[in-house]
Amino acid sequence: PYPPQPQPYTRTLTQTLTHTLTRGRIVTLGTWPRGRAQVPIITFSILIGLNMDYDVFLVTGILSARSSGLSNRAAIVAGLENNGTVIGVAGLIMAAAFSGLLFSHTVANQQLGLVILIGITFDTVFLQTMLVPSLMAQLGELNWWPSRFPDAGIDSLDDAGAPEESDSARMFAGPRSDDAEAGGAVGGGVEGGSRRGTPPQRDALAVTL
User: Fold this and answer.
1) What is the pLDDT of residue 151?
2) Where is this chain compositionally biased, Acidic residues type (predicted)?
């Protein structure tokens, strides 16, 4: 199928928010424009790569859940549940690795570590766990346009993690196995007694007479 078309716009939005926050934060802290002029260029490419990396983890998990038959909202929940820990741990490792630059005696290294630390924290804590799932929930099936998925009959996940059928799916699926068994038990009671030990109606009438 074709790649999801609305996704580049949401990625552009998240990238813009990340770079705006990090640039504004280092300006308010007074650490820029002092230092090396190439720091914004270096951090720009690094933050884009990290943002896209975490986004691939999240959207791939959501797409896999949606392809398995879950509805759009249930797929978002499942994807975030399965890959949220991976994104958080990866962000924590990267933040810990680059935070060592804050203790450098070079202003450029301090700026580099500060920008990456702020960008990774904002991306993993807010963007990938709150903003991106919210946008995808609002877009609905437009997330996958022009690809089309069959109508999902699974709207949510129960406590055990098994898919729960929607009302419309139950309506068109016909009688369930337990309902059919119950119906057979009632019919068997009329003819000669149910399978659960209920006495036949004819025998009950004979005893009464």
Assistant:
1) 62
2) 156-166
Residues 83 and 132 in one domain: yes
Q: Put residue 161 in one of left, alpha, beta given phi > 0 → left and psi -120 to 50 → alpha.
A: left
CATH at 104: 1.20.1640.10
Amino acid type, 20:
T
For 34, phi then psi, to 5°, come to -65, 150
Residues 93 and 184 in one domain: no
Residue 10 pLDDT exceeds 80: yes
CA 83/CA 165 separation, integer angstroms: 24
Q: How large is the average pLDDT for residues 139-149?
A: 77
In a domain, 76, yes or no: yes
Q: Is the dihedral of CA 120, 18, 87, 77 positive or negative?
A: positive
The pLDDT confidence band at residue 161, using thresholds 50, 70 and 90, is very low
**What's the DSSP call for residue 4?**
P
* CA torsion angle 64 133 131 94 (round to 10): -40
Place of tokens 């650490």: 31
Q: Which residue has the higher pLDDT, 6 or 96?
A: 96
Report helix angle 132-139 to 39-67, nearest 10.
Answer: 50
Together in a domain, 88 and 142: yes
Q: Is residue 172 part of a domain?
A: no
